[in-house]
């Protein structure tokens, strides 16, 4: 079994694409853009859900704070689950025999 796993791992590494430093920088910038977009979406979604449109007070109420906390936690949990699922799908696709 160990020998089979070693062969599969070697095949997987052989299929990987080498990345130049300029491509690495582009990938890093793309990752930053994705994270910024995720933060903006989280902020907007949770603000719309948890904060009243009419600002009666300068500070958040306890209920608004709790709602924002839960909303952000759920949003990040779903984002992480989707990321793991996409990674698993990509890995499975890369390990599938090429036709």
The best one-word shape is elongated
Q: Low-confidence segments, ≥5 residues, pLDDT <50? A: none
Question: How many β-strand stretches?
Answer: 0
Order of helices and strands: HHH
Structural class: mainly alpha
Main beta-sheet annotation: none
Tell me the distance between the termini.
25 Å
Question: What is the average of the pLDDT values?
Answer: 82
Which percent range describes the beta-strand content?
under 5%
Q: What's the alpha carbon Rg, rounded to whole Å? A: 21 Å
Number of helix segments? 3
Which features does this protein show?
single chain; 99 residues; 3 helices; elongated
Secondary-structure map with pairings?
Elements: H1 2-15, H2 21-50, H3 62-95
Helix pairs in contact: 2-3
Short description:
This protein is mainly alpha-helical and 99 residues long. Helices cover 79% and strands 0% of the residues.
How would you portray this structure in words?
The chain has 99 residues and is mainly alpha-helical. Helices cover 79% and strands 0% of the residues. It contains three helices and no strands. Helix 2 (21-50) packs antiparallel against helix 3 (62-95). The model has no long low-confidence stretch (mean pLDDT 82).
């Amino acid at each position: 079994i160990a020998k089979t796993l070693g062969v599969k791992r070697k095949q997987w590494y052989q299929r990987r694409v080498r990345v130049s430093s300029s491509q690495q920088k582009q990938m890093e910038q793309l990752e930053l853009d994705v994270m910024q977009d995720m933060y903006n979406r989280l902020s907007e979604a949770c603000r719309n859900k948890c904060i009243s449109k009419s600002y009666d007070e300068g500070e958040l109420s306890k209920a608004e704070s709790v709602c924002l906390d839960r909303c952000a936690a759920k949003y990040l949990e779903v984002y992480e689950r989707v990321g793991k699922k996409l990674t698993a799908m990509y890995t499975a696709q890369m390990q599938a025999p090429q036709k």
